Amino acid sequence: MRPGRTTLASVKITDVAARAGVAPMTVSRVLNTPDRVSAPTAARVRAAIEELGYMPNLIAGGLSSRRSRMIAAIVPTIASPMFSAPVQTFTDAMAVAGYHVMLALSGYSEESEDAQIRAVLARRPDGLLLTGAVRSPAIRKLLRDSNLPVVEIWDTAEEPTDVLIGFDHAEVGAAVADFFVRQGHTHFAVLSARDPRATLRRKGFVERVTHHGLTLVAERILEAPSSIEDGRRGLRQIVGQLGQRTALFGSSDLVAFGAMTEAKLHGIAVPDQLAICGFGDFEISRACHPPISTVHVDGAEIGEMAAREMLTRINSAANSARISVPFQILPRATT
Amino acid sequence: MRPGRTTLASVKITDVAARAGVAPMTVSRVLNTPDRVSAPTAARVRAAIEELGYMPNLIAGGLSSRRSRMIAAIVPTIASPMFSAPVQTFTDAMAVAGYHVMLALSGYSEESEDAQIRAVLARRPDGLLLTGAVRSPAIRKLLRDSNLPVVEIWDTAEEPTDVLIGFDHAEVGAAVADFFVRQGHTHFAVLSARDPRATLRRKGFVERVTHHGLTLVAERILEAPSSIEDGRRGLRQIVGQLGQRTALFGSSDLVAFGAMTEAKLHGIAVPDQLAICGFGDFEISRACHPPISTVHVDGAEIGEMAAREMLTRINSAANSARISVPFQILPRATT
DNA sequence: AGGGAGAATGTTACCGTGACCACAAGGACA
DNA sequence: TGTCCTTGTGGTCACGGTAACATTCTCCCT
After folding, report:
1. Is any Cβ of chain B less than 8 angstroms from the Cβ of A2?
2. What is the pLDDT of residues B264-279, one digit of tens each?
3. Region of residue A98 (left: phi > 0; alpha: psi -120 to 50; beta: else)
4. How many Cα atoms occupy the beta-carbon half-sphere of A194 within 13 Å?
5. Contact at 8 Å (CB) between A162 and A134?
6. CB contact under 8 A, B258 and A103
7. Sign of CA dihedral B19, B20, B26, B29
């Protein structure tokens, strides 16, 4: 460190300005709107910044400009690829644009989510990333009044607060049922987590099965977020109800993998006696043996789209929208 | 909404003060140091807050108090339970204490981590959570000079910048080697990701094997972060080099699971011809069949400890420390 | 040559809080 | 009864930037 150099916290924009022989405002412009400063001046300022080890204070800047360059993201958990994937791509994409992401985890509790939203608004984020549509009317009103970009992901069933990116989970369930039916199945089972979106998938599946006049032989609700172990336990609990040939829909690939594992131990042939379809296209369903049929939805892509929508809305007003992301059934070896 | 009620952004502390008939400072005290305000005054202030829908501005508060009540966390990725678990528990524990966590993802690139640290310091966090010890001397100096609490997790091999919580990965590798040796193994193989900590484990393993004068029949470096598929591919590549009875160490449970999956397909008996030990005690190693022997380390616990240390250091100066977290080999069905 | 447009930079006035210090009122104590 | 301490509250100002407007200078066009 050169003599006279000062430390992180103590150097402020006025110090840099003095050193470079310009006004503080010019330093600010060099950092925020470089094209409005002449090249020689900018060079002098940059040199001063370098020499002093100046680090801008975004808290002060945020207060003054009323833009925090920060986004709050609230997801149930990051322990599942379902949410870690979009959070990861969203964070990366926003970082490129100069935004940081504040992460809050809500579990699967609605009250917790509401509390987190309130808490995080005190930091004056420039936007909000939420999981599923906000249900509490009070919070919805708060968000609408705040005039902030709100991107809700993973669910398009409900009315968007602002933008909603995802797909209809009930349709997924129905599509899986249809897929099984086309393969000639007549007997069905579901193992499904107790979370809002898994519930929609389960209902869509069950309704479609019923609509076809076919038989639901077993239905089991698991805890959320559900694990491989939940899938195994679920299958153990319904194993007595399975017939000669049953088609099982699991609410995630973890559940499906657990069910398959347990089925093998019970001597049940997959897919001949028990056909299995999961959800999420996690790596495990692709890389295990036999590979498990599943529903592909691109969480990473949803995160990127969310970032795109967020930036659009930060930079210019945009209308409320509902953006559908396709899902796709991937038949593999278990169906 | 009652008449006269104003919206989020516009209500400030002076409005509340006027409504309650007190000075702004008193409102601030009601929110930050309630015990210094008389009960009747506090009640009046709270009523005014409620009526106006006041939401404090933590940006302004942070500028004034020079405490942002925010922690920056930088991890390589949250796609692996290795990091999502501690991030999750850390975030939860800090939230209870009124701190929010800003998340940045560095991949496995050191330059990216350095850049992220610089970027995030501009937000004046009250502390930093990092993965592994900081290696760049410039950044280390920056952090030390900043006088911020810095909690580094997952690695105790290097010198801590401030506090280091984790274990020695080379010791893990050595312990696994010893464990195999005690079971009578004489031939060994490793499939290991190209990341700093996996590399330490691999080296510890290989050195111990060599030290015993035993044979390393195959060693394969995988990409980081490594997946089930990487484990399968790795095993395919070394399958020709495996002898009658080999003990394989995988750098994570995903790798181990992939290796086991592929071994079965090649007709290799596990554990008789190929014994396998993973690392991390992810759910998959416990819930798959046969359950895979692994090294248990409690990522969730590390996150909680990190939060504890962070809060301690925020509230009072503390000495640099290196905190060891135990790891434990869990023999299951693959060894 | 005069006028106007545009580029580069400076000046002023906050942004919304909390630290710090001042001060009034009331009770304890000698 | 006077002094001292404690408790509760208010006033002032600084935190470190940036928006908005003002100013200066240059250059170009008619």
Report:
1. no
2. 999 999 999 999 999 9
3. left
4. 9
5. no
6. no
7. negative
Residue A304 at interface with chain B, using a CB cutoff of 8 Å: no
pTM: 0.94
Spatial CB neighbours of B164, under 8 Å, sequence gap ≥ 6: B133, B152, B153, B155, B156, B158, B321, B322, B323
B227:A120 CB<8 A = no
Q: Supply angle C-alpha B7, B10, B16, rounded to 5.
A: 90
Domains and CATH numbers, chain B: 8-56 (1.10.260.40), 68-167+299-327 (3.40.50.2300), 169-296 (3.40.50.2300)
In the block, tokens 């050193």 appear at A19
Q: Please check whether strand D approaches the CB of A7 to within 7 Å.
A: no
Tokens read off for A292: 């498990």
Copy the structure tokens of residue A131.
């999981």
Residue nearest to nucleotide D11 (CA to C1'): B23
pLDDT of A2 above 50: no
Residues B306/B334, Cβ–Cβ less than 8 Å: no
Distances (CA, A) of A308 to A209, A245, A305, B174: 38, 45, 5, 47
User: How many degrees, rounded to 5, is the angle at CA A26 between CA A23 and CA A28?
Assistant: 115
Chain A residues inside the 8 Å CB shell of B87: 78, 103
Q: Could you tell me how many CB contacts below 8 A there are between chain A and chain B?
A: 151
pLDDT band at A3 (very low <50, low <70, confident <90, very high): very low
* Of B174, B142, B137, residue with least CA distance to B159: B137
